[in-house]
Amino acid sequence: MNRSPVWALDVEPFVKRILRHQITVDPGQVICLLQRKGSSSFVQRGQSICELSGEGVLLIPVIDSVGQFEFASDPPVVDCVMIGFQRQLIEETLQNSREDLNESVRISIFEAKTTVKPEPQKMPSLIRERSIKDLRNPPVNGSATHFWYESRVREVISLCFFGGRSDDSLFCSQHNHLTDVRIRRTKQFIKDHLDQPFDLHAAAEFVGCSPHYLSRTFSESEGTTISQYQRHARIARAAELLLTGKYNINEAALEVGYNSPSHFSKAFRQEKGMLPSQFLDIKNNSSLH
After folding, report:
1. What is the dihedral of CA 238, 244, 250, 254, to 10 degrees?
2. What angle do CA 199, 200, 206 make, to 5 degrees?
3. Which DSSP string corresponds to 47-75?
4. Cis, bond preceding 276 (omega within 30 deg of 0)
């Protein structure tokens, strides 16, 4: 196996359509296995140290004896890339960042005196979708490939070796932010069209999602349906108009989209706990004191 400070090996071309394949690695290295599909195991002294089935990332210290990666799959296709580091080099590189490393990574690099059983990690989406492809297909030739591989390997280290927020939690954060924006825009759409029947399709187009998705996420986020929120917004606006003294009950009802006085009174009572006439009486009595 290559003894350079850092090396990368694309396993896929060697393993495709082969039921079993072995790759030998020398001691004094740390191996990072990026596997998208298939099955693999790391064997030392005839014993399987760890296994990975399907997608994941494994960081394996090869301590005191030659080890072998054995690949098998059913169907016979393995899709993975191996990156090897001289142990001394990776220790020196990450020494100042030791406390920020994932616990399993820190143990594998700094604390393993004998072969430890690594725990597979979830593969970040950037590794799955970009880094593996980049490692297999560098866009440069000659001496420039050294710098290219170094940048890709550093990317793998930054995404797979360190703790903190994962790209999945980042996705969740971005998703939640987008949901919040859509909810705010939906509320504004409703307030801008209080005098009109609510058009779910128009609102969904306005905020940029499907009608069904908008209806579901609004209810989940607000704990109320869109129609209930519209009623709340209409009655709140009608109450404001009544308080100005410039609108009677029928006029306020029409301003917020109620053509039927009885429907308006029913909705007003559901929201305010009293009829519009009672609301006006309280307002007028208050103004007398």
Report:
1. -50
2. 95
3. EEEEEEESSEEEEEEE-SS-EEEEEE-SS
4. no
- What are the Cα distances from residue 34, in Å, to 46, 132, 195, 200, 248? 23, 8, 58, 45, 71
Architecture of domain 229-288: Orthogonal Bundle (1.10)
Distance, in Å, from the CA atom of 205 to the CA atom of 193, rounded to the nearest integer, reads: 15
The two tokens of residue 201 are: 């399709």
pTM of the entire predicted model: 0.51
Q: What is the pLDDT of residues 245-272, one digit of tens each?
A: 899 999 999 999 999 999 999 999 999 9
Side chain identity at residue 166, one-letter code: S
- Give residue for tokens 């004094």: 28
Does the domain at 168-223 match CATH 1.10.10.60? Answer given as: yes
